[in-house]
Amino acid sequence: DFLFFWGAVFLVTTTLVAFLKKENEELIPAKEETKGITDTYRLLFSIIKMPAVLTFCLLILTSKIGFSAADAVTGLKLVEEGVPKEHLALLAVPMVPLQIILPLVISKYTAGPQPLNTFYKAMPYRLLFGLEFAFLVWWAPKVKHEGGFPVYYYAVVVLSYALHQVTLYSMYVAVMAFNAKVSDPLIGGTYMTLLNTVSNLGGNWPSTVALWLVDPLTVKECAGAQGHTCATAAATEV
Questions:
Q1: I need a surface site. Which of 71, 84, 100, 110 has the fewest CB within 10 A?
Q2: How far apart are CA 124 and CA 96, in angstroms?
Q3: What angle do CA 84, 79, 153 make, to 5 degrees?
Q4: 114 in Cβ contact with 181 (< 8 Å)
Q5: Residue 170 forms beta bridges with which residues?
């Protein structure tokens, strides 16, 4: 019902915009260097062959490896340790206003000539939150009781997630500001799309690999089955 309602709202509002919003035809569009799809891809290849762009892409594709496990697996491991999914979902609600305010605050520090300084400064703190999240997972079974988890545990989780969001958005906004700063205005949309796509890939592929590695890297013990390591799915089933 929720998805149906907002899907209907989305369709109605976008349809109204399409029919009722008129373009300002008096404005002369800026000169574009591309005329079609083929030209655009040629331009993309010429951009990505630039040494500075190649170096930047390499850095941005590998910069988030250190956060991948903490970002992708923490929530799943908390659920595995008994934290109810619905409680974790509710904990995300206080993050919404924070996620709205943070880009506005951080943009003041990324508006200067060196926006990536904020990226560098936030990185060690975000790495430390990987240890903090590991502690939260380890701590969960220690404080769990018959009625669930105490309020102070949820308070620590919310505080940890909130501070983690500060480091996450500091890096995110800094990269976006840098991409906007270095993009050629004549092909700004194409240039920024390329860099932002690489940035998104840099966050997605490490998380995928981290999720894939969870099972083989998890230490398992078999109860009542001596000589079995339970290292494989078949051994676990036996």
A1: 100
A2: 24
A3: 70
A4: no
A5: none
Residue 147: both structure tokens together: 């009625």
How far is it, in rounded angstroms, from Cα 93 to Cα 158?
Answer: 10
The closest alpha carbon to 180, from 198, 193, 167, 170, belongs to 193
Report d(CA 228, CA 238) in Å as an integer. 9
Q: Is the pTM of this model over 0.85?
A: no
Residues with Cβ within 8 Å of residue 132, at least 6 apart in sequence: 160, 164
- pLDDT tens for 74-106 read 999 999 898 998 988 888 888 889 889 998 889
Residue 7 to residue 57: CA distance in whole angstroms: 36
CA nearest neighbour of 170 among 101, 115, 119, 105: 119
All structural domains of the chain with their residue ranges: 41-211
